């Protein structure tokens, strides 16, 4: 049996709370089919898709023995979107990329590529999805000052997640990799 997986950076409790406020305000203006569960807020480093348990175990070993940058800080926000500006299909919080994030992304791509996953060809656009699959309404991004906020996010780890598409909270942490801890990452969580 196989499951779908991805590698991502979790958000802190304070950023999650702020993004929930964004969702509450956005709901007054737009109706989306999918609202990200607060525990699922993350920055995707690599979508892996379908994978076997054996391949995932090997991936976890490689990730845990990888050479990762030390912890760093990212700026999350302001609000952004994909698709039509007035009726975007995806609402998200922008993430300002820094060198450590780019290094984390590139090292992740290299490791997963050695195990048979294809390299991502699209440019890396880090973000945190708030809502997707737009149904109706008009974007309030330019008229509500709340959406111009940004938050400093301290990044000291990332996770391998298993996807449960039918659950309310869709992402389960399978393994945690701590930054700046080459060879010191413990067993799978």
From TrEMBL:
Domain of life: Bacteria
Catalytic activity as recorded in UniProt: a 3'-end 2',3'-cyclophospho-ribonucleotide-RNA + H2O = a 3'-end 2'-phospho-ribonucleotide-RNA + H(+)
Cross-referenced Gene3D superfamilies: Cyclic phosphodiesterase
UniProt key word ATP-binding: no
Segments carrying motif HXTX 1: 42-45
Active site: 42, 127
A Pfam cross-reference name: LigT_PEase
Matching InterPro entries: Cyclic_Pdiesterase (IPR009097), Phosphoesterase_HXTX (IPR014051), RNA_CPDase (IPR004175)
EC number: 3.1.4.58
Keyword annotations: Hydrolase
Entry's Gene Ontology molecular function annotations: 2',3'-cyclic-nucleotide 3'-phosphodiesterase activity; RNA 2',3'-cyclic 3'-phosphodiesterase activity
Short sequence motif HXTX 2: positions: 127-130
Enzyme class: hydrolase
Protein task: Hydrolyzes RNA 2',3'-cyclic phosphodiester to an RNA 2'-phosphomonoester.
Family designation: Belongs to the 2H phosphoesterase superfamily. ThpR family.
NCBIfam families: 2_5_ligase
Identification of the protein by name: RNA 2',3'-cyclic phosphodiesterase
Organism of origin: Halobacillus locisalis
């Amino acid at each position: 049996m196989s499951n779908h997986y991805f590698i991502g950076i979790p958000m802190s409790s304070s950023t999650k709370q702020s993004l929930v406020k964004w969702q509450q305000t956005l709901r007054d203006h737009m109706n989306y089919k999918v609202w990200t569960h607060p525990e699922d807020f993350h920055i995707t480093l690599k979508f892996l898709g379908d994978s076997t348990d054996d391949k995932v175990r090997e991936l976890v070993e490689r990730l845990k023995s990888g050479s990762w940058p030390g912890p760093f800080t990212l700026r999350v926000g302001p609000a952004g979107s994909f698709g039509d500006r007035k009726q975007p299909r995806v609402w998200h919080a922008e993430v300002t990329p820094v060198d450590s994030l780019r290094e984390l992304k590139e090292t992740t791509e290299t490791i997963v590529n050695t195990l048979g996953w294809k390299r991502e060809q699209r440019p890396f656009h880090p973000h945190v999805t708030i809502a997707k699959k737009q149904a109706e309404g008009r974007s309030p991004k330019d008229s509500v000052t709340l959406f111009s906020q940004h938050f400093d996010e301290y990044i000291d780890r990332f996770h391998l997640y298993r996807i449960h598409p039918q659950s309310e909270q869709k992402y389960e942490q399978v393994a945690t990799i701590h930054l700046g801890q080459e060879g010191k990452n413990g067993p799978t969580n």
